[in-house]
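Supplementary Methods, section 5.1.

A reviewer requested that the exact input to the structure prediction be made available. We therefore reproduce it here, unchanged from the version used in the analyses.
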Amino acid sequence: MKALQRTLAIAASLCLGAQTIRHAYLLWLEPRGSVLDKYDRPLKDEIAAAGSLDELLSQYDPVRKEVDRVRAERRAADPKAHFEGDREAEPFKSEAALREAISSWEDRAKEIRALRFYWGVGLALAVAGAIAYLRLNRWLGVTLLIIGFSEIIYWTSPTFLGPATQEFDRLLVNKLALSVASAVLLGIAIRWLAVFREGGEG
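The structure derived from this sequence is encoded token-by-token as follows.
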């Protein structure tokens, strides 16, 4: 059993170490700008500076009204016309960018809630596994530990990039903090269960 425990401990350590470094890189070192940003910078700055979903909605509302007004005018002028090129012209371009930012904000908020919930579930299973390992049955304990740390590692794994919003940064901060906490907990479990202690069962 010791060989299995050591293999799993090393694999979990590699996963947590790699993803913790990636979260830190994305949060503090990843370049977020582009040479093309100067053409869209005012809107991108407003989106990035929004501190809440309500702020994004307050930016979106007048742009959406302007889009509806322009479309209504074009339809009145030519009811059969199709406006396929609208996405590249204003106000359609700004409306699409703000819509994407709002959708991304909502997705990130849901992801933060799920991350915290499932990380807590993983922690509870890992603690139950450690107790079962020491007091009840080693195989039951190892099984619960595997399930618990698998849940923890999965939910703290790297996320795909999204628009530069404060909610995306908040998701990265949560993932980084919980990845560090997970690595510490894994180290405690390895030491407490004497996974790498020489001698005993091989």
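Helices lie at 2-29, 37-49, 53-77, 92-135, 138-155, 166-192. These observations are discussed further in the main text.
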